[in-house]
Amino acid sequence: MTTVSSPTSHSARIRRSCLSVPAINQRALDKTHGLDCDVVIFDLEDSVFPEKKGEARDNLRRLFRQTPLQGREAVIRINASGSEFQKADIELVLELAPDAVLLPKVDDPEDIREVAGLLAATSPDVRLWAMMETAGGVLNAAAIAKSDPRLDCLVLGLNDLRKDTGVPSEHGRTYLVPWIMQVVLAARAHGLDVIDSVFNDFRDTDGFAAECAQGRAMGFDGKMLIHPAQIEGANQAFGPSAEAIAEAKAIITAFADPAAHDLNVITMNGQMVERLHLEQAERLVAKAQQISLRKTMA
Q1: pLDDT tens-digit readout, 214-247
Q2: pTM of the predicted model, to two decimals?
Q3: Of 103, 144, 152, 262, whose CB count within 10 A is highest?
């Protein structure tokens, strides 16, 4: 799997497309190595029937012995706290050491701390991701986001949140927007990445594109996906454009000028540019470099 820095260091990563793959589906697992997604989420939770959980774990054992996912993150979504299956899932994580563990249905900070404690002794580099998909989780988003330095990413889960709240599914997600933005704000306040929820109809390409555009405008880093057909659209929507990359490089060059050494604000093309824009530019260029590097590894 990819090299992971210390859990306390949230370096720039590309997470435009996070494809969820049922660990019980061997055919889908076999195809993951040829896909252009940034993250593969191997799911042991909702997509696997209870009587199939053991078989799904065995599938992942075999898969992880094969060729690593070059340049991409491997994430295992385990079963929720309190589930009879979580202990065996954690044992699998300790054995396979994926890049991250995705915890479903996180309600409060203790859900994060409990799993972080189980990983601490033997898996110091495995990060944690949290599914924000319950009413309690959204209410506690800020406390969850700062719960443990191992936590790296929040993932919005609207299917369960709709079920929990009774808000119907509709294009535009009008009545969910306040809760969605609460999750984004919590992630940004504590230096975490944040991933938008799945779009359920992979055949509705126009609807998917519109929701990707909305998610990008809301500040998400990428989108959780249910089908490989959605990968290209997510990569385009959440990836840096050529124009944005060129502008970022220009900002970096401008601040590298010795004349700007002691300046917090400079002028470029008639616009005020602050050092905070330099930090954003450096992060964007780093992500663009990661995308380019992975293409050469494909």
Answers
A1: 999 999 999 999 999 999 999 999 999 899 999 9
A2: 0.90
A3: 144
